[in-house]
Amino acid sequence: MLDAGIADCFACPRLVAWREEVAVTKRAAFRDQDYWGRPVPGFGPADARIAILGLAPAAHGGNRTGRIFTGDRSGDVLFAALHRAGLANQPTSVSADDGLALTDLRIFAAVRCAPPDNKPLPIERDTCAPWVHRELELIRPTVRVVVALGAFAWQAWWPAMTHVYGVKPPVPRPKFGHGRLVSQPGVPDLLGCFHVSQQNTFTGKLTPAMLDDVFTEAKQRAGI
Ligand code: SF4
Prior knowledge:
224 residues; five-stranded mixed beta sheet; alpha/beta; binds iron/sulfur cluster; 5 strands
């Protein structure tokens, strides 16, 4: 079982130390809660036609609640957009038992453990790649579009193309951009989207309307 297996991974010493330290020290507002403090598995049905590939769990978000993009500001923005798009049954994501359900969508991250400063290293992305590939194998029969949230996730797609689909990435690699589309036979379409980080959403670099445009296009391309 993919979700159970991933919770036991200890392959990245720096991230294992950080995820566990945060789970002990906690943020004051969550002092009374038990943090998850382990790798965060993907979320969403196995027959998803759209995948969202994120960066990594947030220390006090996914690393606290055990569900990706759950319990932090990034998730607030993302799930509000997914609800508007009809891909989520509710606009909020606060805890693993809040009743949130996705339709036609599975969300997972390039790195499964919370990194210091929200900045995983390329070596940690490479080490975690087999988990991404297993997520893609799970939804491979149905997935048609992969939305990469940010350049780090965009970079994680190329080895996945080779490992999961046996298709060589274009040379040179297309650069990440918001709204950038890479479409080629035999693999899902890749669609770039600025990450839903506070850095982007608070500054207006990424607006709700821009997210709506991305998910409208993703749905069209996925036949939803
Ligand atoms: S980031 Fe990925 S590979 Fe590294 S410890 Fe966490 S689950 Fe394992």
